Amino acid sequence: MTSNTPPDWLADDQKHVWHPYSAINSGLPIFPVASAHGVRLKLSDGRELIDGMSSWWCAIHGYNHPVLNQAVTRQLESMAHVMFGGLSHQPAADLATQLVAITPESLQSVFFSDSGSVSVEVAMKMAIQYWQTKGAPQKQRFLSLRQGYHGDTFGAMSVSDPVTGMHRLFADSIPQQFFVDAPTRAFGDACDDDDMHAMQAALDAHHADIAAVILEPVVQGAGGMHFYSADYLNRLRALCDEYSVLLIFDEIATGFGRTGKLFALEHTDITPDILCLGKSLTGGYMTLAATLTTTEISHTIGQGDPGLFMHGPTFMANPLACSVALASTRLLLDTPWQENVARIEQQLQQELQPCASLASVKEVRVLGAIGVVEMKQPVDMKTLPQQFVDEGVWVRPFGRQVYLMPPYIMQADDLSLLTRAVYNIICKI
Question: For the chain, N or C: smaller number of CB within 10 Å?
């Protein structure tokens, strides 16, 4: 049963609540959600939408999952939160042990934080403190790829694309970093010396001042959904070692199976010095992130001045978040996630391909459970979300990208409704 009357609270929302990347009274449509279950969002008017976004890529198991619900409920019975300074708890220890077990062997130290952006800040601070202890205090800057996105806090903004990114308004306020063009070789292709020239030239010129190279491995997410050669990362690892620069992988978007591997780094033959995780870590239930690094880095920081790592969020390693993250990770490992992602990938390839023939479309590309239709012109965010809702799906494009990142549990019929909606709407543009 549907109702055309909006809920009472929506007026208060529109008056007082500032939504992400929007303005108060922006005129952009806001759709009130009453509940969510499986892969569906139920609006307050009774309509149901198939979620193609996994709630910004994190709800990999869908919504209201009984295993994750139970993990939160069980943890509530003992404690919802306790400070992590001088105290600890089993959910944090168990989660850290699990993350160490499923990531590369060299990554043995885990620092928890509240969000992906903060995990990037933590990684950057780790790199700077490491080099200060090693007697290279001038290594304060970072080298990154254009088209990248690493978060909304000041350090994270500074290593995101400086021109076409979302943060150019703050260009005079954030730290100034070094950038090179993103790789042009597509995913699956090999790299040669020409591909690495810009990166090598930047390291050769500035390595004395660079603490680390930071990038999103294989998939550049919110910067444009660009898929690039994994071999580029193999060669980059060798360059970082040659020039004594650390390598940071931001897997906030790609971690926990999204690209068809448990982590995107598994498409390569190498390991980063620091790894950032977030989003899918808790299955979309709570905000939590983790920054993993080597014992060489963590122990070196502990031996320097002031003998500790200078970071400590109030809600670091929140027990509720750690409990549901552990349950989500175990649930992922216990399910046929690889088969599900491969199935989704094949279906996205087949059903989004017809979009490539449309005059308004530049390219269609798919990797794992990521399907992207890149338009030739930016989409109209004032009208497109409403059109998708009218089709019974939730898809939120950005820039020139109309993309799908569905939960891994999505079945073929629901995925077809999503891809059909994408085609039906794009063909009118």
Answer: N
